[in-house]
Specification:
Blueprint: H1 2-10, E1 27-31, E2 34-42, H2 47-64, E3 69-79, E4 82-92, E5 103-105, H3 106-119
Antiparallel strand pairs: 1-2, 2-4, 3-4, 3-5
Helix pairs in contact: 2-3
């Protein structure tokens, strides 16, 4: 049983699943511009890699919904047979909002993600 769980957990290591292929429960709209986004990977995936995947997922969501920027808050991390992180994501349109800390430009995040993948 443990061997089966370890082999299944290893399948997700190092591989990103695009937003279009996710289960509905992983992205939940809470308000017009606020979502709960969850990302799951193998327990063997580093926290840094999980954070990278989560930012990429949020950038894809922002652009898909017609927004330009996103802010991450209310993080919940769970580690077991898999590593899971859920965040509340607030999306913004137009000019970069003033006074919002930890704001990401969705296009910049995807550009960085694309560059990182090409260099690997």
């Amino acid at each position: 049983m443990l061997m089966l769980a370890a082999s299944l957990a290893g399948c997700a290591t190092g591989r990103y699943t695009p937003l279009g292929e996710v289960e509905r429960a992983e992205v939940e709209q809470l308000k017009e511009n606020v979502y709960r986004v969850e990302y799951r990977v193998s327990a063997f995936t580093s926290q840094e890699q999980l954070d990278f995947y989560l930012r990429r997922r949020c950038a894809e969501l922002a652009l898909r919904e017609g927004y330009d920027f996103f802010h991450l808050a209310q993080r919940v991390d769970v580690l077991g047979f898999s590593r899971r992180t859920a965040m509340t994501v607030t999306l913004y349109k137009g000019q970069k909002p003033v006074g919002v800390a930890n704001l990401y430009d969705a296009k910049d995040v995807l550009t960085e993600a694309s560059s990182a993948l090409k260099s690997n």
